[in-house]
Amino acid sequence: MDSVEKRLDACGKLFVEMAKANFxxxxxxxxxxxxxxxxxxxxxxxxxxxxxxxxxxxTDIFMRAGMIDDDLPxxxxxxxxxxxxxxxxxxxxxxxxxxxxLTITTDEVWLxxxxxxxxxxxx
Length: 123
Known about the structure:
3 helices; elongated
């Protein structure tokens, strides 16, 4: 694994750790508008499926984090025309304000990602 791949791997692990840690409140009740979603303690939860993957395609290398398994129930369709529950939480709907779990987590890890990617933080 080269240095960039190792650094993206560290960024992915940090994102998953922080996102899962953010699911602190159980449903019911529902989360408040613009707050982190609550999780269902009695069932299969989105929290259990948050993950990351580092991709290398030709000269490109990138990390994808969040709900990355396209086969999970509720995931966005391959066409992107049928957003699943995690996407609806992030953006909201005409009947529900957003619960921006990706945005909140990314904001929390942003400075740490910078330190990891620039080598300011040792691996």
